[in-house]
Amino acid sequence: QVQLVESGGGLVQPGGSLRLSCAASGNIANIYVMGWYRQAPGKQRELVATITSSSITTYSDSVKGRFTISRDNAKNTVYLQMNSLKPEDTAVYYCNAKKRTYSSGPYTQDWGQGTQVTVSS
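Predicted structure:
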């Protein structure tokens, strides 16, 4: 089991910035990808960004060019830097971690409890 603790959410004006953090603890060995997802009221949960153990990143088209995902292996922490925020970015943001014992093998995943991001004037 991996425990994920998120922080950094809050209220920000349109055009502003926030940085989310996700600290992983517990059985963190063999984590190969971590990511951020979000869910707005009345909508399905959607992928925002992912980062692999080799630091390969992917982004949703809706955030590409505005958000940056990164990781600090020494701190077992992943970050999401969010710039040029828009009201449509308002959602609960969830941290996710996937782990497996060997390449292309079975995997397990864990979720954080979510942190609220509200973009409003």
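Summary: The first strand starts at residue 2 and ends at 7.
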